[in-house]
Amino acid sequence: MTSSQFSKFPLSDRYSLMTSSGYDSSLLDQFLPEYYKRIFPFKPYVKWLSYNQKPDEYFAKREFAFILEGDVHLRYRSFDNQADFETELCKVNPHKLDIGAVYSHKPKDCKRHSDFKAIERELVFDIDLTDYDGVRRCCSEATVCEKCWRFISVAVQVLDKLLEEHFGFKARMWVFSGRRGVHCWIGDEKARKLTNAGRSAVAEYLSLIVGEKLDIYGSGKKALPVHPMIEAAFRVALDSGEVDKMVLEQGWLELEPALSILEHCEDPELRVTLQSQFEEVDTADQRWQTVEASI
Questions:
Q1: How many CA atoms lie within 13 A of 24 on its CB side?
Q2: In terms of C-beta density within 10 A (0-12 exposed, 13-18 middle, 19 or more buried), how is residue 224 classed?
Q3: Among 54, 68, 70, 128, which residue has the fewest nearby CB atoms (within 10 Å)?
Q4: One of 84, 128, 131, 160 is an active-site residue; which one?
């Protein structure tokens, strides 16, 4: 089908044509003008990024980057109001729209100001399925199946609880990343105004990997008790309703991988007990019941 033939179909039929038999990137340039003109949520989008402030005083200082075909980036785009934003977006029809920081001056005037700098931006967390390739047995790399999304479901529940209860962040928006994961946009004023050091501190607090090793005690220390954040995450994961299914679907407690996992148990007595019990039963389900009884 040629682009001219495609353009003659009603909008709803064009979408069906693009999705029913697989995505066809050659149709994107034909579809985007209709998307920006008829579907893109300009009003709530501008309202969100204005944070209850006047658009010409706040939204106008927000940078947008238009990404065109061939990964061409048009940076430092900014708009005084919704009308200007809508007009330009419908004119350019970018393949991708990136949201940047709020600057000290309007980004489109960046060359006029020597003190032009970013003053705030949302705190964003990215959860990608490839981060779980070390324990994801059903798929790997770019391949994704329904079982994979249990990892995302648990991760969202854990991170959402920690962000609220450990940091007090209220304005949390979870969105599909468009590929293999999700993003969490945190819009609280105190989050938007964090320094780079502050952002790093939040990320470090939530990290379990130090170098290439798992750290459940905090700051690389090897002493009990386990860090409260880890305890909270552990309970959320177990209560998620997903872990029971993941244990069986991913084959973590088939005998060989189960014994391999036990090598990381730092309680010698518990390790010996579980190893004996694991070898006495025949199924992963029975081994999981044994683990549940011990926690």
A1: 16
A2: exposed
A3: 70
A4: 128
pLDDT tens for the chain, 295 residues long, are 444 444 454 545 544 544 444 556 778 888 999 999 999 999 999 999 999 999 889 999 999 999 999 999 999 999 999 999 999 999 999 999 999 999 999 999 999 999 999 999 999 999 999 988 888 999 988 888 889 999 999 999 999 999 999 999 999 999 998 778 899 999 999 999 999 999 999 999 998 766 555 555 555 545 556 788 888 999 999 999 999 999 999 999 999 999 998 988 888 899 999 999 999 999 999 999 999 888 7
Write 159-162 long-range contacts (CB < 8 A, 24+).
159/125, 159/127, 159/184, 159/206, 160/184, 161/232, 161/233, 161/236, 162/206, 162/229, 162/232, 162/233
Under the phi-then-psi rule, with left for phi > 0, alpha for psi from -120 to 50, and beta for the rest, what region is 219? Answer: left
Please tell me the distance from the alpha carbon of residue 155 to that of residue 175, in angstroms, as a whole number: 13
Residue that the structure tokens 């705190």 belong to: 123
Known catalytic residue at 128: yes
Q: Is 174 helix (H, G, I), strand (E, B) or coil?
A: strand
Which is the catalytic residue, given 126, 165, 204, 239? 126
What is the DSSP-derived secondary structure letter of residue 28? H
User: For residue 230, which amino acid is it?
Assistant: I
Look at the block and give the residue holding tokens 């779980």. Answer: 132
Neighbour count for residue 253 (Cβ, 10 Å): 22
Is 13 tagged catalytic? Answer: no
Q: Which two tokens stand for residue 150?
A: 């249990």
Q: Are 280 and 258 in contact (CB under 8 A)?
A: no
With 0.90 as the threshold, say if the pTM is over it.
no
CA 176: distance to chain centroid? 7
Give the three-class secondary structure for 87. helix
